[in-house]
Amino acid sequence: MRTRVFALLAATTAAIVAPTAASAATIVGTLAGAVFNVGSSTPVIGAGTTFTNSGTIATSNGTGDLSPISFFTPFNLSSVTATWGSAVTLSGAYGTFVGTISKVDLSTVGTSSVVSLYTLGTFTPSVALAGFDPGAASLTFSFTQTGGAGSAVSGSYTLASPPSGVPEPAAWGMLIAGAGMAGAAVRRRRSKVSYA
Questions:
Q1: Phi-psi label, residue 101: left if phi above 0, alpha if psi -120 to 50, beta otherwise
Q2: pTM for the complete prediction?
Q3: Which of 19, 60, 107, 179 has the lowest CB atom count within 10 Å?
Q4: pLDDT grade, residue 17 (50/70/90)?
Q5: Which of the 8 DSSP states describes residue 65?
């Protein structure tokens, strides 16, 4: 019996003391870009339109950990279909974003149509950013057509890591815990008060 206890104690100590692989940080930053020679599968852009392109460039220097990416850095963008669940890939020398579209918004003012797409996925860094771990990111697109059916389409995007507009799991936990505590406080106050 003592042998088993000592073996278990030794194994536990070894597991605690053993070196663990160090993990690099995930990227925190944003990058804006423009999409070139945008083509569309429909005369008037909208839900279901597939957008083709001949490439993209960064239209500003990246911010935060994405700051090594400078103005005019080229990226390759897959065709983008304005449908929930469609796959999107943006790749370049500094890394690759792979994700799926999770939100499609449409707006029209006069003869101008705008398709806004929100994509969630993973950004895997490379080259100057190779010291970072892959992490959750968002890629937001805006495709605009001004002048009606058959007019030219322009496109822009913003890459954000961590994803923009999506609460962290800890934030959800705090929200739920706070609502629970508020409910408990209200319930406690409803108790009957008796006067002598």
A1: beta
A2: 0.71
A3: 19
A4: very low
A5: G
